[in-house]
Amino acid sequence: MVGNQGGGQGKDGDRSLCNGLLWDWIHWQNTPRTSPFHLLTRLLRHLSHGFQEPLKPGDPVRIPGDSKQIPTLAHSYGDVPVVHAAASVQRMTAMAYLILWTYEEHKIACQDARRVPYKNMIVIIDELEAHLHPKWQRAVIPALLGMSPHLDPGLNIQFLITTHSPLILAAAEPVFDQARDRLFHLDYEDQARTAVVLKNAPFLQHGRVDNWFTSDIFGLGRARSLEAEKAIEDAEALQDKDAPDRAEVQAVHDRLVRHLGDHDTFWAVWTWFAEQHGVRR
163 and 127 in contact (C-beta within 8 Å)? Predict the structure, then answer.
């Protein structure tokens, strides 16, 4: 995504559809009065708003073995070439560039054709959470939805986003509009698993991230490890027994100690039962 396609024509006279982030960034930075470099700067700052060090372009550099200039991001410890930036930073940088490049190229094409630019855009993002720290996962949906005014006050962007992250969905709760937004769930059509269908699922506010884990969207039994989940299931089965054996209780208790955290809510349910059968934490 941060690669460079190169400008001009190829050896066969092929035209370049997109110069790529590296070439465009340097070109825009060297011609700030006639380029959308100020918009790129604004988008980078917006997508990293609230972070200790918001994304900010630095001075271009050359890296060993490469004769071209490489754009950088400014940090308190120095400028970092975007090709050496963290995967999360590269992804968000590429996202800002591609959305900006698409709209700018559309405006140029409309100007050449003497047409009025469209004010509607569709952006498709697969696996939005890829490489993103949980802090960024919590902030990315509101940030994306707030991009339009930074590009054009009249621009409407529709996002089609896929995710496997419950944190992404939890972060979407404050901005999800039931009148215009939709949540779709890709799942098997039936228990035979012979077909997959895309279902329009109700968007319910689950609040905590672990509640999203156990919702119909993700379908996990518990928001714990598999070992912890199985230990709790066995513990609950013991609690349903009329006269459980102390050795059985001790064995399950030892597994709970091994797989549950000290502050796990299940201890409130289990501790009294275990003590009644001679087992203490």
Answer: yes
The CA distance from 111 to 115, in Å, is: 6
pTM recorded for the entire structure: 0.84
pLDDT at 17: 86
Task: Look up residue 54 and give its DSSP letter.
Answer: -
Mean pLDDT across the stretch 136-160? 95
User: What SS3 state is found at 63?
Assistant: coil
Q: Which long-range contacts (CB under 8 A, 24 or more apart) does 201-208 make?
A: 203/172, 203/176, 203/178, 205/173, 206/169, 206/170, 206/173, 207/170, 207/173, 208/170
Q: Is the pLDDT of residue 13 over 80?
A: no
For tokens 């379908």, the residue is 219
**Where is pLDDT greater, at 13 or 106?**
106
Of 102, 121, 172, 164, the residue nearest 143 (C-alpha): 172
Query: What is the largest distance, in Å, between two alpha-carbon atoms of the chain?
Result: 85
Q: Can you tell me the distance from the alpha carbon of 147 to that of 205, in angstroms, rounded to the nearest whole number?
A: 24
Give the C-alpha separation, 219 to 225, whole Å.
14
